[in-house]
Amino acid sequence: VKIVGIPSGMTSRELMIILQQSGAETCYMPINSRVNRRGLAFTTFPSEEHVQEFLKGSVIISSYHLTPLPKLTKTCHKKFTFQGNKYANAVKQKQPISIKQQENYREIKDPVEDNQIKSILSNIS
């Protein structure tokens, strides 16, 4: 289970003490390159039933609402889940290329022949 919204000063030991009441077995809090906690944790449970039960609720620690999410849920750096975001259901679709873009692409794609280059250079001089 992924847990987001963890206060920056909380350690994995402190969080584990609280999560053991819900039946958690382990707790891992990743850090960034500057050894700062990222505000999220990964927790394991003994069975899938424990996981499903834990995902139904939320954990409140001194006015912080910790949100449990399925492990593979993508979250942004501000600890908001994309599931609640207005962009969650937006699927990136390939936009049609405009006529101007098509012309530019053709110019780049098709190499200019040598005789065309010579005629252009002769017109310039």
Provide the descriptors you would attach to this structure in a database record.
5 strands; elongated
Summarize the SSE layout with pairings.
Layout: E1 2-4, H1 12-19, E2 26-28, E3 40-44, H2 48-56, E4 59-61, E5 64-69, H3 99-109, H4 114-124
Give structural notes:
The protein has 125 residues and is of the alpha+beta class. The chain has a domain at 2-69: Alpha-Beta Plaits (2-Layer Sandwich). It is 31% helix and 16% strand. Strands 2-3-1-5-4 form a 5-stranded antiparallel beta sheet. It comes from Dentiscutata erythropus. This is 8273_t:CDS:1.
Q: How many strands?
A: 5
**Broad structural category:** alpha+beta
Return the CATH class of the domain at 2-69: Alpha Beta
Overall radius of gyration: 27 Å
Shape from CA axes? elongated
Low-confidence stretches: 84-93
- Give the CATH H-level superfamily of the domain at 2-69: RRM (RNA recognition motif) domain
Helix content: 25-40%
For the biggest sheet, the summary is: 5 strands, antiparallel
CATH topology of the domain at 2-69: Alpha-Beta Plaits
The number of helical segments is: 4
- What share of residues are in beta strands? 15-25%
Give the terminus-to-terminus CA distance. Answer: 72 Å
Question: Which strand order does the major sheet show?
Answer: 2-3-1-5-4
Order of H and E elements: EHEEHEEHH
Mean pLDDT: 73
CATH architecture of the domain at 2-69: 2-Layer Sandwich
Brief digest:
The chain has 125 residues and is an alpha+beta fold.
